[in-house]
Amino acid sequence: MITTALAGTSVLTTTPAVAAGHRSGGVAITRSVGAIQVICLLDASGPFTLSSPATAFPNATEADWSAARLIDPEAFGPDGRWHLSFQCFVVAGPGSRITLVDTGVGPAGSPASSWAPVPGRLPQALAEIGVDVRDVDLVVQTHLHSDHIGWAVHPSGEPVFPRARYVVQRAEIAALEAAGSALVPYVVDPLRRTGQLTEADGRTRLAGGHGRSGHRITAVPTPGHTAGHQSVVVDDQGARMVMTGDVLVHAVQLANPAVTYQYEGDPELAHATRRTLLNDARRRHAVLAAAHLNRPFVNVC
Ligand SMILES: [Zn+2]
Q1: Where is the segment annotated Disordered (predicted)?
Q2: For 12-33, what is each residue's pLDDT tens digit?
Q3: Which of 9, 168, 210, 250 qualifies as a cystine partner to 27, CB 3.0-4.6 A?
């Protein structure tokens, strides 16, 4: 069974620099993982412009769609299109450490602006919770699709987060380089030039790791959507959250992990990864944090 939960909006106490804030048209959605707070920030939302739901998820059945409608009703617009959110997650803690998972669609002029429904507003959303771009210590890019790297760098090439280390899987960059992707000169080269890029090789501990119940932030390879896709696992005091990235992009893939998505690089591998991630989450009673669900935090049980 899958349930969604819109969590409370409590004032953060672990990080004085961060206060409760507002989402566009609503309040910031915050969940606790032990003493660590995770805040979902909405960069953009609107209809998917590239294809219809039936084309985007070609093997979804009527039963899958019915189940998905219960999990994320806002995904089903009156116009028949897929309505989705483009979300980033702030991990506030341990201590004053600020980690940002993904950087949204970006501003007008970003690579996603040709198809994203609206320009993004992440810097403003960060400011609303009391986080300046200079406060961000670590940026984890789950993958290098245009709707996840939008605020990594300005269109001018300057990094948006001047103090941050940016973590990307080496396999992700290698695949883009092999394909001659325009995203290499747009985002990879500028971060290399400033020395801010860290290319991770597989599972990587990003913070913590002392003792069984202590806090840990870990990057975990979850390939399939892209070759070097990674998810972020936050553990503290026995609680766990998994920021999925695009292991699942729509509630229909929660309803049935076998539902494939048109833009998955390797659909078979993506399915296997999704199944494993969901099974692990159930076993560990983990909360999922999904980039594109309109109700981002999902309890799987
Ligand atoms: Zn995406």
Answers
A1: 203-226
A2: 222 323 333 334 444 579 999 9
A3: 9
